[in-house]
Design a protein that fits this description.
Length: about 400
C-alpha cells in the first residue's frame, strides 16, 4: 500500500511562527520549508526531470489548466499518472487551474479578475474571454479559442487524472482591484462553497480510484489584504477535512509577512501550508517567519531564460558586456552543475548567440539557488540561527538591512 499523506512538525522557531517539518506522500517525503519548482506542462522548461532533480528539488508542481488542454488528463491517467508520464519519481503537486482560466482567459496576469472587466484589461482590450458565476468559470482556450468550462468537480476530476500527490481546491482568485464588498461576495458565494464541493468530489474520486495512490487536497485561502477576511477564510477552511492549505490570492508585497501570519495563526498546526506563486528571497523569509511551509513559482526559471541569474549579491544580467571575456565560473561559491562547469564568458556567448543551451544552464543555476536558499533557511531554523541568517542574506542580496 502507498504511504498515506501526513505532516509532522519537527522544529518550532522561538519568537516566530517559523517551523520545520516533513510532508509524507505516496512518492516520498518533502522536508519543509521547501521550494517547489513549477513544471507547467509536465516539464520545467529547458530541463529534463533528471536535471531538475540534480538542482536539489524535492518535488515539482504541474499545471492543471495546461495539461487539461494538452495532452488531456485522460492521456496522463492512461500513462499511469504524472510521475510515470514525465518520469519524475518524487512528490508532485497540481494546481486547480483557477488562476490560469482567469489570467489566460482574460489575457493578463494577476491584476485581471475572472469577471474580465474591460476597465483594467491590458492595451485597451475589451474582449471577454472568461466569465464567472457561482457554479464555475467559462473561458476560451488560449490555444485555439475553443470554449470550456471549469467547475470544482471538473477541476478535481482533472487533477485526479493527473494523479499528483497534492491537489488544490478550485477557488476564485480575486485581485487588489476588487472592492471589499466583492471580496466578501467571492468568499461566501464562490471560494468557500467551491471548497466544500471540491472536497466532496475529491473524497469520491479517492474512493472510486483505489487503483491509484491516494491524493491529498489543500484548501485555498483568499481575502486579499483584509485581515478579517483572511482570518475568516482560514477559520472556515481550517475547520474542514483538508490535508493542508494553500495561501493564495493577491498579496501586497510590503505586508506579505503580516498577511501570512493572519492565515497561519488560524490554521491547524498539524497541517502544511503552501504559499502559491512566491519566490523573491525577501518574500520567502517573511512568509517562512510567519508560518509558511512550502512555495512554488515560475519566476526563477523565467528570469533565467531572460539572462538574469541569481547571486548572493542580487540578480545579475549575464548578457552584460563585462562578461564577454570573463573566464571564471558564474558564481564561484555555487555548487550547481552550471557554475561547476561553465564560465561567465560561455554563458554570455550562449545568450547572445540565441543558443537553447543558455536556457538550460541558466535555469539549472536559478532553480538550484532558490531551492538551496530555502534548504539553508530550513537548516537555520533547526539550528536556531534563522534571524542571523536572514539579516546576513538580505543585507547581501538587497544591499540593505533586513526589517
Amino acid at each position: 500500500m502507498p504511504t498515506p499523506f501526513y505532516f509532522t512538525v519537527t522544529t518550532k522557531l522561538p519568537g516566530s511562527l517559523a517551523r520545520t517539518g516533513v510532508i509524507h506522500t505516496p512518492h516520498g517525503i518533502i522536508n519543509t520549508p521547501a521550494f517547489i519548482p513549477v513544471g507547467t506542462k509536465a516539464t520545467l522548461k529547458a530541463l529534463t526531470p533528471e536535471q531538475l532533480r540534480e538542482t536539489g528539488a524535492q518535488a515539482v508542481l504541474v499545471n492543471a489548466y495546461h495539461l487539461y488542454l494538452r495532452p488531456g488528463h485522460g492521456t496522463i491517467d492512461q500513462a499511469g499518472g504524472i510521475n510515470s508520464f514525465m518520469n519524475w519519481s518524487g512528490p508532485t503537486f497540481s494546481d486547480s487551474g483557477g488562476f490560469q482560466v482567469m489570467s489566460l482567459g482574460v489575457g493578463f496576469k494577476k491584476v485581471i479578475d475572472m469577471v474580465g472587466g474591460a476597465d483594467i484589461a491590458p492595451q485597451g482590450r475589451r474582449d471577454k474571454l472568461a466569465s464567472i458565476d457561482n457554479d464555475g468559470v467559462t473561458f476560451k482556450s488560449h490555444l485555439d479559442g475553443s470554449s470550456h468550462r471549469f467547475t470544482p468537480e471538473l477541476s478535481m476530476q482533472i487533477q485526479h487524472g493527473i494523479g499528483a500527490d497534492i491537489a488544490f481546491a478550485f477557488d476564485e482568485l480575486t485581485t487588489l482591484h476588487h472592492s471589499y464588498d466583492y471580496q466578501i461576495e467571492s468568499l461566501e458565494q464562490r471560494t468557500h462553497p467551491w471548497a466544500v464541493r471540491s472536497l466532496a468530489e475529491h473524497k469520491r474520486l479517492n474512493a472510486e480510484r483505489s487503483h491509484r495512490p491516494p491524493q491529498a487536497l489543500f484548501g485555498v485561502i483568499q481575502g486579499a489584504n483584509y485581515e478579517d477576511l483572511r482570518r475568516k477564510s482560514a477559520k472556515f477552511l481550517g475547520s474542514m477535512d483538508f490535508d493542508g492549505y494553500g495561501l493564495g490570492g493577491a498579496l501586497q508585497k510590503d505586508t506579505i509577512g503580516e498577511i501570512t501570519a493572519w492565515m497561519c495563526q488560524e490554521l491547524p498546526e498539524n497541517k502544511p501550508r503552501h504559499m502559491l506563486g512566491i519566490s523573491e528571497p525577501d518574500d520567502i523569509f517573511a512568509c517562512i517567519e510567519n508560518g509558511a511551509d512550502s512555495f512554488d513559482c515560475v519566476s526563477p526559471a523565467r528570469v533565467g531564460r531572460n539572462g538574469a541569474l541569481y547571486t548572493t549579491h542580487g540578480r545579475v544580467n549575464i548578457r552584460r558586456a563585462e562578461f564577454a571575456n570573463d573566464f571564471t565560473p558564474f558564481d564561484s561559491e555555487c555548487t550547481c552543475y552550471t557554475c561547476q562547469n561553465y564560465t561567465r564568458a560561455y554563458l554570455h556567448h550562449l545568450f547572445h548567440s540565441g543558443e537553447l543551451l543558455a536556457n538550460t544552464l541558466a535555469t539549472i543555476h536559478n532553480e538550484h539557488f532558490i531551492v538551496k536558499l530555502v534548504d539553508d533557511i530550513r537548516e537555520s531554523i533547526n539550528n536556531d540561527t534563522f534571524f542571523d541568517f536572514k539579516q546576513k542574506f538580505l543585507q547581501g542580496y538587497y544591499n540593505k538591512l533586513a526589517k
